[in-house]
Every structure is written in structure tokens, then in C-alpha cells.
Amino acid sequence: MKTTVIAVVAAAATLTTLATAQGAAAAPAAPAGPVGAVVTCGTPGAPGPLLTRACVEVTGNQVRFYGVATAGDPSWQPQSVGFAVSGTVVGGAPLAPVNPTVLVQAGSNQVGSVFSNAPCGATVSSTFSVNQPGWPASTATVSTVVAC
To answer: Distance between CA 11 and CA 26 in Å, rounded?
Structure first.
């Protein structure tokens, strides 16, 4: 009788160990850091015909600086508008800005792209502004940390 009880207890312990091991193998590992692109956009620039917002998209240590222009007036008619987009990795050399002229439609419009690599933990900053003669200045900025 004593041998039978020991055998049953040993068999139950083996089955519990197998079930625990299978459950542990099936559980996904928690990600080590951000997964995919992380987008950070700043507060809007000064009011004007267009609402401007500077944005930074970080994927690992790759950084994309760009802007978003949104027509503030519901009667906006599509027109070409000049912009300036620049980015900086704090502590590094400034990146060459881009000055695109974009046909701005009603709704939100992504404008320009400046690309760079930045070390993990670095702070990056972006500036986006309207660069259209005769229009009021509307500059927006944003800063974020590259969290690889």
C-alpha cells in the first residue's frame, strides 16, 4: 500500500512539472523596449491659416523629423505652401533642414522628412514652420528621448 501511494504521488508530481514547463514555454516573453515606431508630436504653433505641429518618429535608433499642417478654416482651398523642417540630435551637429513646397489639402498633411540616427538615450528636437511670404510665422517644436 505504501509503495502504491508513493508511486501515485511521484506520478502526480511528474505531471505537474510537465504542465508547468509547457505553460512556461507557451507564455510569450515581454518585449525589452518600445516595439515599432514611437511618434511624438508637440503643441501647435501660433494660429494662422494653417495649424502646424512638429513631430518626431523613433524606431530603434532611427529618427524621422517631420511636420503636420492642418487647415484651420473649413473653407480651405488646396494651395501650395512653403515650409521648413529641421531636426537636431542634442549634442550633435545640426542636420540639414528641408524646405519643401507642398500642395496642402483640407485635413492633416504630413510635410517633409529629415532622417538621422541617434544613440539610445539621446534627446532629439524638431522644428516645423510655415515659410510662405506674406503669411504670419507659425513655428512648432518638439523634443523627445530616443528609447531603444
So the answer is: 23
DSSP helix/strand/coil, 108: strand
Which segments within 21-138 are labelled E, that is strand?
A: 38-41, 50-59, 62-71, 79-89, 101-104, 108-117, 123-130
Residues in the chain: 148
Section 36-63 average pLDDT? 93
Contacts of 106 (CB under 8 A, 6+ apart): 71, 74, 76, 78
Compute φ and ψ for 115, nearest 5 degrees.
Answer: -110, 150
- What is the C-alpha R_g of the chain? 27
Confidence of residue 148 (pLDDT cuts 50, 70, 90): confident
Residue 53: CB partners within 8 Å, gap ≥ 6?
41, 42, 43, 44, 45, 67, 68, 70, 128, 140, 142
What would the pLDDT profile of 83-135 be if each residue is shown by its tens digit? 999 999 998 888 999 999 999 999 999 999 999 999 999 999 999 999 999 98
Residues 7, 87: Cα–Cα separation, whole Å? 70
Of 54, 41, 43, 72, which Cα lies nearest the Cα of 135? 72
- Asked whether 135 and 49 are in contact (CB, 8 A), the reply is yes
